Recover the amino acids of this structure.
């Protein structure tokens, strides 16, 4: 299924002219190889967002920078690496068959962030004009940005991303961003609040990290994973299916 979804994305990239034919497949893989942001949960429903390369004006990203889209609650719903062409993002919609919110709800507004790799700087983006569509989510919709500007530099705080894939059969990955070197605890809890698994309890360097969860013996149901670093604690929800 993952391979099929990637092929669909590649077909979309071709249709939108995101990549030249000669370097198409290579650039598509590079665009998905994010370092600062995790990959969002593929829920099977999305809204296509295209940022025209000319829309940046004199503030164009450098190759290797990353663009991410967030919902109104601060959940990341798409991410991509800038590869020197028009930038296409699949903004994933919320999966109505799970209790957690993995994507955008119908008519929900999205906003964009730009990570400048060379400076390790995160900025918010403001869309000045759309050539097509707008900044609200709808399934199978296409929005095209023709004018975009940097708004403000953002503080990079502790960030916990939705696990991928979700729902979980027996394996998933959890990503988080740590603004500075710190001790980190990452644990999984059942609906009764009982700890069922410790995924990490150690010191991590500043930056983005990925932790693998292998849990073939977990019963089907709703679980929560907690990320604790110093006095900060973040929690997200996952669904386990059998």
């Amino acid at each position: 299924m993952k391979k099929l979804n990637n092929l669909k994305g590649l077909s979309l990239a071709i249709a939108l002219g995101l990549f030249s034919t000669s370097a198409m497949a290579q650039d598509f893989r590079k665009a998905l190889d994010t370092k600062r942001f995790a990959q969002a949960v593929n829920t099977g429903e999305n809204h296509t967002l295209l940022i025209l390369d000319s829309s940046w004006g004199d503030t164009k990203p450098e190759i290797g920078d990353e663009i991410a889209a967030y919902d109104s609650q601060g959940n990341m719903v798409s991410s991509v690496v800038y590869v020197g062409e028009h930038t296409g993002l699949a903004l994933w919609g919320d999966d109505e068959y799970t209790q957690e919110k993995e994507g955008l709800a119908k008519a929900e507004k999205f906003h964009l962030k730009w990570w400048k790799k060379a400076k390790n700087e995160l900025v918010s983006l403001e869309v000045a004009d759309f050539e097509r569509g707008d900044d609200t989510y709808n399934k199978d919709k296409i929005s095209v940005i023709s004018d975009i500007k940097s708004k403000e530099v953002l503080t990079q705080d502790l960030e916990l991303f939705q696990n991928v894939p979700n729902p979980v059969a027996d394996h998933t990955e959890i990503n988080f961003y740590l603004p500075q070197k710190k001790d980190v605890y990452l644990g999984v809890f059942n609906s009764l609040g009982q700890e069922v698994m410790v995924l990490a309890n150690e010191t991590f360097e500043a930056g983005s990290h990925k932790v693998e969860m292998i849990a073939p013996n977990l019963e089907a149901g709703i679980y929560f994973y907690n990320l604790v670093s110093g006095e900060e604690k973040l929690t997200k929800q996952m669904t386990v299916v059998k």
